[in-house]
Structures are given as C-alpha cells and as structure tokens.
Amino acid sequence: MNCATVKEWMPHYIEGMLSPEVELNIRLHIEACPDCSSWLEEAKGLAALWSDMERGADTLEPLDFPDLTVDVMAHIEKLESGRRERATKATMARRRTAPGTSWMHYGVAVGLTFLLLQFGVFEDLAYGINEINGQMSTSVTAWFNPK
Ligand SMILES: [Zn+2]
C-alpha cells in the first residue's frame, strides 16, 4: 500500500467503512509513515468539525422550522379572525343605520377585502395589506354610518 492509496481511502478509514483487511493495511502504513500519520490527524480534525456542523444542523432544523410554521399559521389565523370581526361589525353597522341599502357596495367591499387579504398572505405582504384592509373597513363602516 502506498501513500496515494492511503490518502485516497483516508475518509472511509476515518468513517470505519472499510473491510478489516484494508483497514489493517492502512493502519500499518500510517504507523510506519509520518507523512500519512499527520494527514490522518488533519483529516480526523476536519471530520470531527464536519460532523459537529451536521449535528448542529440536525438540532437546529426541528427547532426552527415548526416554530416558523406555527408563527405564520398564528399570523394567518389572526388576520382571518380580524377580517371576520370587521365584517361582522360592518354588517351590524349596516343593519342599524342603513336598512335595505348599499348591499352591492358592501358585497364588493367584502369581496375586494378578501381578495386583497389572500393576495397579501400569499405574497408575504400581509402586514401592509392588513393596514389597507383596516382602512377599507373603516371606510365601509363610514358608508353605513353617514354623519
Ligand atoms: Zn504514507
């Protein structure tokens, strides 16, 4: 076994994926060869670093992604319930102050609000759209509460 072969098989040697005879040959060569011995130390250091990084990624992943999902879902829930609340308020305002009128305006406004909200959620512009949404609801309420 020569140095080039030993260096080529080094990663597999470190991972313990070689057959016992090959592993033994490599070990015997490394013990007899200072050059390959220092290669092994260096490669072991890199392998340890690499597996640390992989472990780090493994522990980070399950922590990060579900949290993000829960956050986004909670945000969507909030937006949705906010929309329903405003729609209910607008309906109540309409019933109280403007019976039998502006049904079409109300329907268009709600449909448009809903569309904007959907667009906002999917385009990740939810916050900005929600602001517009709030202003729209205010104006919808104003229509049914003419002062
Ligand atoms: Zn060697």
TrEMBL record:
It comes from the Bacteria. Pfam families: zf-HC2 (PF13490). Gene3D superfamilies: Anti-sigma factor, zinc-finger domain. Belongs to the zinc-associated anti-sigma factor (ZAS) superfamily. Anti-sigma-W factor family. Residues 3-36 form the Putative zinc-finger domain. The keyword Ligase does not apply. Keywords: Membrane, Transmembrane, Transmembrane helix. It comes from Paenibacillus tianjinensis. InterPro entries: Anti_sigma_zinc_sf, Znf_put. The chain crosses the membrane at residues 103-122. This is Anti-sigma-W factor RsiW.
